[in-house]
Design goal:
Helix content is about 40%, strand content about 20%. It has helices spanning about 5-20, 60-65, 70-85, 90-95, 150-160, 165-175, 180-200, 255-265, 280-290, 315-330, 335-350, 360-365, 375-385, and strands at about 25-30, 30-35, 45, 55, 110-120, 120-130, 135, 210-220, 230-235, 245-250, 275, 300. The strands form three sheets. A five-stranded mixed beta sheet has the order 10-9-8-11-12, with helices on both faces. A four-stranded antiparallel beta sheet has the order 1-2-3-4. The chain has a three-stranded antiparallel beta sheet with strand order 5-6-7, with no helix packed on it.
Length: about 400
């Protein structure tokens, strides 16, 4: 079947008009949308089937003519706009301006189900009349009873080096809200769980020279032959200061170093060089993961410690920053919770904290420009929650 250029242009114009109109596109998930017919009250299903690259639509134009209809084009345009605009209110203006919500089951039969009042303010509750699911508009943190402003303030203070108990005192003093330090730690873990998988899907534009180093961290409730300590492996890019990966392990064996390199390979392009402090596990892991006889080859650079003017100062400095944070915490509890906390800290380091030497965040320097605005923590949570 031959589709002429004029028909294609007309569909593009109609798609733009759909995006520009209110209440025409409903987002069910990142691969499923509902688009309203322009001639009736029918809603068409637009979806991207699993492991395919072509969108499908239930409208007659796509079903019978097998063309990329105006509904599919409208969804594609909407998704492109979604990647540019980051605030939750802006996203609703594009895809859901009437604030009519869609449940995860796909139903649009959602009603407001009252509000919950507490010392932090009011939180709107919603209910799906199709599946009876209930939820709150609470920044993506499940079962959270505190508003978003208090949460983001608590996270920001913690990542800036304030202890959990002092953050608790700050919230009580300035907001009149009593929360436990355990609840604040739960927010931090949740931040890492929600946001880290979202940001790890982006491919940063790095210099190709990666620094890797390990450091002992105090984990109170983990006991091995050398005491209550675990090993934190960090890898950082030389130029952008992008913190590529952070991994907690019980020992410094070859398989642990291999796991670090494998995770880095899944996130970045092949490096020009790997710089490390000469730990034998690095050499053996390098041969397994990066060594090749064909060009371009990755260099294995063995450096001495920072005390002897070695080449690994940048990642050593990163270790020092986290060491300062660990002293305030007086250690961590378990290896699993330590990994969650460190993942959250890595997200903050890359996407929120402005690096002094480059004048911007490492993510921005690495070409990941999410336009997060002033409250970067809140914007990251909202973006990650929308993508899940």
């Amino acid at each position: 079947m031959v589709i002429n250029q004029q028909q294609t242009t007309q569909r593009q114009v109609k798609a733009l008009s759909i995006v520009g109109l209110n209440n025409q596109i409903k987002r069910v998930s990142k691969t499923s949308y509902k688009v309203k017919s322009q001639t009736s009250e029918t809603w068409y299903d637009v979806s991207l089937p699993y492991k395919t690259e072509k969108w499908i639509c239930s409208c007659p134009d796509h079903t019978f003519r097998l063309v990329e209809c105006k509904h599919i084009q409208a969804v594609i345009i909407s998704k492109q706009l979604r990647n540019v605009i980051v605030t939750n209110s802006d996203l609703k203006e594009i895809e859901n301006p009437s604030n009519e919500l869609i449940c995860r089951c796909g139903s649009m039969n959602v009603i407001k189900d009252g509000i919950r009042k507490n010392k932090s303010g009011t939180i709107q509750r919603f209910k799906c009349k199709s599946c009876s699911k209930e939820w709150s508009d609470n920044l993506g943190f499940v079962n959270n009873k505190v508003n978003s402003r208090v949460i983001t303030v608590a996270l920001d203070l913690y990542f800036k080096g304030i202890s959990l108990r002092k953050v608790k005192e700050h919230i009580k003093l300035f907001y009149g809200i009593s929360v436990s330090h355990v609840a604040i730690l739960g927010w931090i873990h949740k931040f890492g769980e929600v946001v880290a998988p979202f940001v790890d899907q982006f491919k940063p534009e790095l210099s190709g020279v990666y620094h890797v180093d390990e450091m002992a961290i105090h984990v109170r409730k983990e006991k091995i032959e050398k005491g209550h300590y675990q090993w934190l492996w960090n890898m950082m890019d030389n130029t952008t200061r992008f913190w590529i990966t952070s991994k907690v392990s019980q020992r410094r064996e070859i398989e642990d170093a291999v796991a670090v390199f494998q995770e880095a390979k899944s996130k970045t392009q092949r490096p020009i060089a790997i710089v490390h402090d000469g730990l034998p596990a690095y050499d053996k892991a390098f041969k397994k993961e990066y060594y090749t006889n064909t060009n371009p080859k990755t260099r294995n650079v063995r450096s001495v410690s920072v005390r002897h003017n070695g080449l690994n100062q940048k990642v050593e400095r990163l270790n020092g920053i986290f060491r300062d944070r660990e002293r305030v915490m007086h250690g961590m509890n378990h290896r699993e919770s330590s990994q969650k906390l460190i993942d959250a800290y890595r997200v903050h380091y890359n996407f929120v904290r402005q690096h002094d030497s480059i004048g911007k965040t490492p993510a921005e320097e690495a070409g990941i420009k999410l336009q997060l605005g002033e409250n970067k923590i809140e914007s990251l949570i909202k973006l990650a929650s929308c993508k899940n």
